[in-house]
Structures
1.
Amino acid sequence: MNRNEIIKKLYRYMLCSTIAWDWPDRKCEDDPSNTVYFFSDDYKKEFCKPLEKIRKESKITYYENKITDTQFNFIETKDENIIAFRGSDSKQDWAADFNFFKIKFKENNDFINNVFSNEISEEAYDKYIFNQYAKSEEGFLEGVSSFFKESKLVNFNKIANTEFNFDNFKNHLFLHKGFLTQISSIIKEYNEVINKCKNNNKEIIICGHSLGAGLGILAYLFLLTKENNLKNRTSCYVYGTPKPCSIEVYDYIRKISNNKLNIVNIESDLVSDLPPEGLGYKKPKNDYTITNIKAPYNTKFNHTVFYYLYCFANKVPILFNKK
């Protein structure tokens, strides 16, 4: 692909990441909280034309876990199966975002074998996580630790089988507990969608923005390790990307996916720096860096989905870091 074709793809999957915010009965741009981005009806109509085009050419199915408030939309087009994860919009989401505790793999494969292959109680799950946290020696505030330890956000009685091959990475590998909690809560629905994808030869795209980007990366990891036969037709595009894992996980994903993970961030997006490096979350290099520009509305730290779309629509310069 040439440069223009790549940018076209980046824009398309940012549009799909925005559609991840659609409810079954309401489009994301019609949510009253989003009126700030549309200072006239004519502007809104013109700005949202690309969103409408994708909606009209697609079948969109909405999936949700109400307990964890985790959502994704399955967008079926003529040539693609697109799984788009939604970003943060509730107390449950913010709890997940700031649940920085690490699930470490230093001494295991037992975690993978016992948690993802079998039924496990929520109590046993939490106990394992916090035993691992205690070993991590991160020194996080005791009060914050107690809050998350005692929280009951999701029932883990049934989690689908997932196999990992982390032999080369396990000594340095960990996942972000909050993001793992949310993706685990919809693993049944996610596997249902993946089974639909097996019935055709369409390209599979996993995408998302913000929290949705973190979930998208973990969803991509699960697909790569569980559905090896699908990896050659699957790619991942994530935007405004927090850090859902250690740097070794990114290396692992890039290795087994033939470098089809695409991290796209605006150069001044602060969310891409979270969780802080002081907690051990090293920031991966952007594959594509978008130049930020002044928008005619409050951009909220240059992070919102509509600001990303604004940058694409105005054809701002994009730095290609990916070979």
2.
Amino acid sequence: MNKPHNSKILGLTTLAFAGTGLLGTAQAATTVEINGQQLRTSVPPIQMNNRTLVPMRDIFQALGATVKWHQANQDITAKRGNTNIWLQIGNRVAMVNGQRQTLGQAPMMYRGNTMVPLRFVSEALGANVKWHNAVQLVSIDTNGTYNGGSGQQVAGVRSITVPAGAVVPVTLDEDLSSATANRGDVFTATVKSETTGDSEFPQGTKLQGVVSDVVRIDNDRAGALDLTFNSIVLPDGARYNVRGSLTAMDNDNVSHPSSGRIMAKPTTGKKDNTKTILYGAGAGFLIGKVLLKQNSVLSAALGALGGYLYGKRNDNDTKFADVNVKRGTELGVRLDSQVVYADNYGYANQRTPYLSLR
């Protein structure tokens, strides 16, 4: 990297990185306050690409986090409570609790100090950040309820929150069959979207799933598949960990608003673990539920003649068959955990009109 050279212009220090095309201004007048008390820093905060950067140790320690610098990879790890943050010099990708975030300005070296984006660090640790342009003041509030301290807010980029219990229609990208699938097989499905904004995620988003259990057809039961979903991949390649499970899309299992958000209906039964599975019927499949007792497996739960299986039934239920789900088949995925992802597409503006009609 070319070394920066400094020049004084109207009281501002201009940092020009030759050959990089990166220009920014470092304003010594910028003040940072945390809960009304001025943050003392080893070097003054700087402004780069309209982002405020501060020395990493000063801000992390002031917010009650432990921080480590790794010289070999020039990366930073910080931890407070259940929140873990990873940053790297020159890298606009950061990680918060294993979830990828995109920064408006990458961390950088300045006067021998490792400088990190103030807003990102503060919001990732659950604080509220406000910029007061008239007095060049950044105020940080750690005492409020902003974001519940979840460490999920994205700095410099709007974020979109999809609540637990939301149901996402998807279409399979490949065939699945209980005759050939094996436990642990990975597959993908594409989020179904007919009009921009009508889905929880942008068009082209993929959900990655895994075959968590499979039962082969035999003399007294049909084949069955248990599917779970563990990650979401946005069109730009950003990946977010999720916990998702299969759900039927009928009125017994989900609420169908005229527009907006599809939500799973609450399940009953605290002691028994109700699972939605695919089981063989005719030349295709049906969606049903099975009760998995403690420490039981799918094959045992199904029992002879599928005795524990219930749900919508028809004459095909008596005909034992393998599960055969073709590519392009629509399924429902219930999100069992909240998902917060960076809105690098301006998708919130397209999504909001649908949600406002709920």
3.
Amino acid sequence: MMKKNKYYPTAKSYFSGAGGLDCGIRETGIKIVQSYEIDEKCIDVLQRNFNHEIISTDVRNITVLDQPKTDVMFGTFPCTKYSPIADISGTRTGDELFLHMFRHIALERPEVYVIENVPGMKKFPIVMEAMSKIPDYYVQIFCPLKTSTWLPQRRERLILIGSKKPMNITPPIGTKPVRLKDIMESNPDMKIPKYVLSRLNGDYRDKPIISDPNDINAIAPTCVAHYAKDIGTRMVKDKKHPLGVRPYTTKEWARLQGFPDSFDWGTAGDRDIYRMVGNAVPVPMARWIGENIVKYFNT
């Protein structure tokens, strides 16, 4: 009997950002047809790193059935409305972007759809109902899914996968994570802003979270987009630096999310890179999702 050729599904990526998810799923052979993004800096980065069509638009303005149909739909709508950090008073109710993701899934009805967000999304029953109760889909939710399975970063996510038939998903266990020491640059040339020195001196309410790469169990705190505004909140020990500690470089920040050094950030400045990386899906996490989807289409 002739062996059946492996099938690699097609996909669309919504709220693609700088392409962390796209980067990971591309590595599994999934054929991305379109990515939708509205941020101009992210669009430039996507165009530099991917050959598929990049749609520069607000998904609220897209008519679903005019787009090419694909096997899989990925949605990573913004998480700031669901993050406990951004909801100090506990009064936020989410936003309508999840409804547009729901609209796209419900009208196109792909074989598989994937939602990635923060664990705090579980506290919003309307959002969870819309994403997990679409008729005729089997839904699995992984929460919290820890980035530390692959990378030296303390980051937890919610992954929701809907499929038209049961999907046997292999848990992300048994992998050897990258160590914090492995992602550090040897002698980076960094300019330290005065406000960072002020934070180190205790002039701010919160002191920086400092990690030691020489500790074999060291792990960085969550890569946040806010790092673009304050690189003094997360720092790393460095004996070669005059202060003995320093902020993470943009290259190290990207490595903490699993981006390869070959990834082209174009003309983006440091602040833009910190922000885009902080908003991205960790590349190895996306790869794990993609591997399970490819397996689904070939069993």
